Input
Amino acid sequence: MHNCKANRETLIALALDPHAHTQSLPAELEACAACREEYAALRSLLRVVDEAKQSALPAESFWPGYNTRLRQRLETGSNAGLLLPETEKQISLKTLLGNLFSSSVRVPIPLAAALLVFLGVSLVFALNSRRPLSAPPPLIVSKTVEVPVIQEKIRENTVTRVIYRERQRRQPASAGARLVAGRQKASPMETPMSLVGFKPTNEVQLTIIKGSYQR
Amino acid sequence: MSAMKLFQVAPLTTSEDELIRRAQAADMDAFCLLAQRFERRIYSLALHYCHNHQDAEDLSQEVWLKSYQALNTFRGESSFYTWLRKITINCFLNHRRIRSFRWRGETTGIQLLDVDAIETNKHRRPALADSENVLLDRIMVEKVMQALSELTSQQRLIFLLKHHEGMTYEEIAKAVGCSQGTAKKSISRAVIKLREHLNVDVQSKNPFRALSG
Output
């Protein structure tokens, strides 16, 4: 089936081809009114561009001045040594260097992406393993350095407890004595000492004093 | 219409080969004579590429300076113009990389032909002698230049090489440094854009006039 849009490029190529102007359109395009019209429009367009090309040129009076300016530029360049004709050798080297830096290589996108990923991974590995494999073994130098060591004295706390204990005397079990005994029982001096508040590092110094004493 | 027929060339009193030989021996006069033979073609190409006369002059003269420098590499394997065109394309491509042209925004106006200039060309197109036609000419050229400026620089260059220079797709691809497919696509897009922009009247017997009007 004929598709006008698909044939547009063919029509453009035919319109641009100077040899095709004398020939007729292919039968398929000739049979289609839209394609014929499109072809005519393209031919007209290119004719207009041709006419413009001719009309846009400057007048004849422009060229002597143009040539004078060109001559001046050539002479100025030559006098300054900037326009010395290059030898073939110089140019080939220049072209080679130019091509080396400006040439482009066509690479498919997936391949380019794969190459980029590969380069990225290589870079990461290179950065991570920066230790040289063939490096000489490290030289070990031993030196004795005297360093003063400050030893802190551990102060141990000495906890002193003094316990007063009444000497037990045999006394007649009188009423008064029972009263004294009852009072002695109630005396705080006779209460047993506990180890509450002691720490394992504390030194316990216990002094037991037996005898009578004044309260 | 053949591109060669549009341009006048310097009188062929001395053969091209002789001029080339002398120019290669650093004879500047010979080189200037050689330049005169092709300056209109190179200038026209530059003008359509960069859309203003100042840039066109700079660019075309740069081509001549480069070709003077590289003249010793011309070995006659191709025609002198083919060799020169290669330098021209390289200059255009370098120019595109180095600087942007002034035609967007700053100097979009085109220095068009003077009435006197048209008068001097009367022998070529006597019908355009009157001032009305001169004005129509100006409008038409401005429209075409404006349409060309809508193309990308690569599309414009490839279109000019194909349409103005009549190069094959293979030659264009080699010269510009792209594939033949890219060259074909660029030309198609360029023509489609130009057609949209210019909106040429097909029905009119003279689309050139229809466009100007």
